[in-house]
Give the backbone structure.
Amino acid sequence: MEQRLLYSGIVGRFPFLTPEIWIAVNLAAGAGVYFLALLLGAAWPGALMAAGGLWLLVWLALNRGMERNYNATDENLMKLLDFLGNYSITSGEITAVLGQVSPYMGEPLRGVLDACYYEAQTSGDTSIALLAMAEKIQHPKFRELARNLEISLRYCADLTVLVSQSRRSLREYTRLRQERKALAREAWINMLILGAMTVVILKALESLVGIPLGEILLHTLPGLGALTVIAVILLLFYRQVRMLD
């Protein structure tokens, strides 16, 4: 949970936020929605579904924030490497370089680079600052770059050699990610087709039994069970697609 809050950018807006506070706020909000739905006349399954819907929206919002920051990092990473490639210096000045190029980066890279620079200046431990920077962004190639910078710091390697290797690695990663995106799009199309078929089957069932579909799904245990199974399948599918992309 701490990583999800960090990767989504919420901690950047609310520095006081901790996983414990986040969980407590979500539980309180879910309980509030549950009792409000009961006061409005909903049955307990409907009230429970309302609370679950709130938590689902929060979970989706977190995922959306993580995805947005991931894509922003992906777009700015090559620019960062281009800037670093202009500095033919030894790695002892790495954090100073990061502080100089950070104004030209977009968020979340700008904030992370600035934090690394100031942490190195205040603590005097550049290695710890670079390793801490690697954990603040979800992108694997950014983590790899930060760890390689820390290694070059210890062995005094030329920064331009590291940047050249990172460029090649990032281009290969981008090519593979585009292939995974194509597979993810195909999976979404297949799921939409299956969803449409499910709706057709449910409408056919409604005409056969002569009972409104909403009555079956929302006010009977088999209907609630079917909705739960469908929701779980969709969530698992969404999670698998995110892992693919």
Observations:
- The chain is about 85% helix and 0% strand.
- The CA atoms of residues 34 and 50 lie 7 Å apart.
- Residues 159-209 form the longest helix (51 residues).
- The chain has a mean pLDDT of 83.
